[in-house]
Amino acid sequence: MFDPKLIHNCAQLSYQGPIGDEWLDGFYARYVPLSWGKLIGENLHDPKHEEPYYRFLYYLAQVRQPQVSLVLGVWMGIDCAHIAKGYPDGLVYGIDHQGHGGPLEVMRACPNFTYQLEDTVEWGAQCADLLRGKIGLIFWDSSHLYDDTVREWGTYRPLLDESAILVFDDVTPAFEIERFFREQEGEHLLFPGLHYGNCIGVILP
User: CA-to-CA distance for 101 and 16, rounded, in angstroms?
Assistant: First the structure.
């Protein structure tokens, strides 16, 4: 199991502002307000739309150094960019059945990132032999539905390495993924301050 203290340290670092990578900080500055604007139509430059959890993913990747990382549900690719930049020597796969423009920009800037426009379960089944024992970090931001998450877990659980970190978006009663999160074995960590109006959950299986 990965050391929980190191994960808490990553969370603390996430509040300290920009990473210091010119491209990554610029990508964050452009796409975080855009994602909020598309979702809720509020002022695109409202400072409350700061989202430290993206930097949390950067520091997790930097410390954990996973051979393979997965992002299930890519949205605008901000999460993928931070993981890919956090550990450039690892491979990062972003899987989403809906296309967005942001991940294409991430692929141009991060040669270790690949965008898969496919169903998360189908892609995992196709790549099982390639990924087995190599996945060290997964960020879950797909449908948030319980049954979908159970199917994804059934696909990717056998492919994890021995010290994998599972990170979940929106772990609140408003989303079914919160039930899945509570049911799983392993050490559970919650970080409500990392995600505006929501909560980031971590499981160390």
Answer: 28
Give the count of beta carbons closer than 10 Å to the beta carbon of residue 41. 8
Q: Is the pLDDT of residue 69 over 80?
A: yes
The pLDDT tens digits for 81-106 are 999 999 999 999 999 998 888 999 99
Provide the CB-side half-sphere exposure for 64 (13 A, CA). 37
CA distance 190 to 8: 10
Residue type, 67: Q
Distance CA 202, CA 190 (A): 6
Residue for token pair 């500055």: 29
Contact 157, 124 (CB under 8 A): no
How far apart, in Å, are the Cα atoms of 2 and each of 64, 85, 86, 136, 187? 8, 21, 17, 10, 10
Quick one: tokens of 102?
A: 């942001």
CA distance 107 to 91: 12
Q: In whole angstroms, what is the distance from residue 84 CA to residue 8 CA?
A: 20
On whether the pTM is more than 0.85, the answer is yes
Q: Rounded mean pLDDT of 58-77?
A: 97
DSSP 146-168: HHHHHHHHHHHGGGEEEEEEEEE
